[in-house]
Amino acid sequence: MVFKRRVTPLPDYVSWDGRWSKKNKNWLPYQPGTSFDDHALEQLTLFDMDPDPEVLRQRLLVEDSELTRYCAAVVADHARRYGWSVKQRNAVIQSLRLLQILRPTPTAKVRASDVVALRRYDGTVTSTLDVLAEAGLLIEDVPTRVERYFDTKFIESGALPDTMREHLRLWLQIMLGGSRQAPRQLPREPETVELHVQGLAPVVQTWVEAGRQSFAEISKEDILAALASLPTGTSHRHFAENGLKSLFKIFKGRRLVFANPMRDIDLTRVATTIPLPLDPALIRAELDSPNPAVALAVALVAFHGLTGKQVRELQMTDIVDGRLHLDGREIPLAAPVRTRLAAWLDHRNRTWPATANPHLLINRRTAPRLVPGGHSFPWKDSRIRPRALREDRILHEIHAAGGDVRRIYDLFGLSVKGTRYMKTVQHPDLRNEDQPGTRP
């Protein structure tokens, strides 16, 4: 559900007599010796009790802490650089004051989990985290989605041996953060790591039930036996094989195993599907969407075959003089794309005139920051998914080119193989008898 912040009503005793303008607590200077320690001793909570909302609102109006004074300059600078509205700036200041009221140790640094807990009091979470991180007062203790998924699959059950658990945590750390130690490795996408965890979980569970205490005990026969127990006709085996390949490659590089048991095992080929065209009427309807962000995103994919990730990460400086510069390629934008681009830029300038976000497509949540939009933006307001739309564009091009794979590679940055799309050239349902090699 969409989170909507409630407006905090003012108590009856508050009267605007001008005294707040004479003494603005948010701008008073903090003491020169003010310091925050991430190792400060904290008083543990004996009973977890939610405070009285009315008392909390009253204290919020008179709270004057070193935390708000310390962060005042950071909030002002953040608001100026990122184009925050006055309402958003005041909401962050109120969240800082609320945080100071709720936390038991005023001189300790702030944990991210405490900031996330402000949602129950209608606090601003993301912007407050940005301010605290810039001020150097934030302790990151909130696990990411893939880390929570990892703990659910391997840690929470408590059945994993200590050695296996430590080695799996090392593997997760290297996969997400990369490694500069030989063998060097770049960080992997969290979605890729999550698929590896999904494939590894049943295999590791099989070994634990068999009494294995370390990955150094695993042989090629153990891997083949575990893979044979997976359901056939699904992608579970493919995910498991890729996860095992990554796992033992890192373990062998760190000398945690004597030999890589995955070395002589051939990976199972994944069954590919035949791309199918979309309804042209549906594409035309989405190109004329009243939402300018949807219309532009659909046009970029329908005319130039961009991926959803490429559309999401496009920046304003990537388009110069009607040409899109993407991955070393220079793509002249089609006339319908330029029309929708102009409409979106007008809407963007009217809605967020002071935003500093460099990305082309932004929304209400990303305009005051520098991050791209989420995976569902702006496709949640569209009836088309970017992957299906891109497949339709490539399918049309390969039929128009008579199966010229090199042309597809140059236009869309695909592999030269292009086997999925090559199979459609002579497909009886996708071939035009009057014009061979083209789609009806």
Features:
single chain; about 450 residues; mainly alpha; two-stranded parallel sheet; 5 strands; disordered C terminus
Count, helices: 18
Poorly predicted ranges? 10-28, 433-440
Class per helix and strand makeup: mainly alpha
| Main pleated-sheet profile | 3 strands, antiparallel
Encode the helix/strand succession as letters. Answer: HHHHEHHEHHHHHHHHEEEHHHH
Share of helical residues: 40-55%
What is the end-to-end distance? 43 Å
Walk me through the structure:
47% of the residues lie in helices and 3% in strands. By secondary structure, it is mainly alpha-helical. The protein has a 3-stranded antiparallel sheet, with no helix packed on it. The protein has a two-stranded parallel ribbon with strand order 1-2. The longest helix is centred in the middle third of the chain and has 20 residues, at 190-209. It is flat, with a radius of gyration of 28 Å. Residues 10-28 and 433-440 have low confidence and may be disordered.
